[in-house]
Amino acid sequence: MFGASKLVALILAFTLGFSCAGGIIVGGVAIALGSFRVRDLEKYEIMEIPDELFMEENPNTDLLNLTAFEMFDEMKRLYKLGDGVTINYLQSEYGLKLPSAAQKFLTDEAREMPLKSLFSEAGVKSLLATVYIGYVQSFECHALDSTEPADPAPAKREQGGIILRREST
Q1: How far apart are CA 24 and CA 84, in angstroms?
Q2: What digits encode the pLDDT tens for the residues 23-78?
Q3: Residue of 127 and 147 predicted with greater confidence
Q4: Beta bridge partners of 140
Q5: How buried is 118 (Cβ within 10 angstroms: 0-12 exposed, 13-18 middle, 19+ buried)?
Q6: Distance CA 66, CA 159 (A)
Q7: Whose CA is closest to 61, among 82, 78, 42, 48?
Q8: Cα dihedral 85, 91, 95, 101 sign
Q9: How many CB atoms lie within 10 A of CB 46?
Q10: How far does CA 123 lie from the centroid of its chain?
Q11: Inter-residue contact 118 to 127 (CB < 8 Å)
């Protein structure tokens, strides 16, 4: 017969089993987030990360050597900096390398503009106002009577006209 004590034992075993399983899963995830670093992939020869393509040799803060919890703390620190977070700051702090194609588009003003402002509508418009569209299409600006590269600024174009030539790639 199925008595009350057997029913209580079954409910207790079921509850304890699921709470132990849940604790093991949650604990395992917490341990993994607190100890795993992306650099561990290289350490255990799981994969090679070509960080020299996008990071300097010795950055102040190595993003690939942070755990998930440390990364979260780093993001909170950046959020507290507010307008102090610029492209130049990110490059100096984390050793980030920008592609050479992006170097043509970023003026000194854009590099020092806070990221909150730079990625706003007004910031994007001010950035695009300084971009020579020929750079996007891989053209060089030349004066009509010369093969030397010319400045694509509007004042310079009025002086002698320009001609566009495709850059050799």
Answers
A1: 42
A2: 999 999 999 889 999 888 888 888 888 888 888 888 999 988 899 999 999 999 99
A3: 127
A4: 165
A5: buried
A6: 54
A7: 78
A8: positive
A9: 9
A10: 18
A11: yes
Instruction: Report helix, strand or coil for 140.
Output: strand
Helix (H, G, I), strand (E, B) or coil at 45: coil
Q: How far apart are CA 128 and CA 132, in angstroms?
A: 8
Structure tokens at 139: 């053209």
Q: How many other β-carbons are positioned within 10 Å of the β-carbon of residue 8?
A: 10
**Mutual orientation of helices 4-35 and 68-81 as an angle, nearest 10°?**
60
DSSP-derived secondary structure letter, 110: H
- pLDDT digits over 73-101, tens only? 999 999 999 889 999 999 999 998 888 77
pTM, two decimals, is 0.66
Q: Is the pLDDT of residue 156 over 50?
A: no
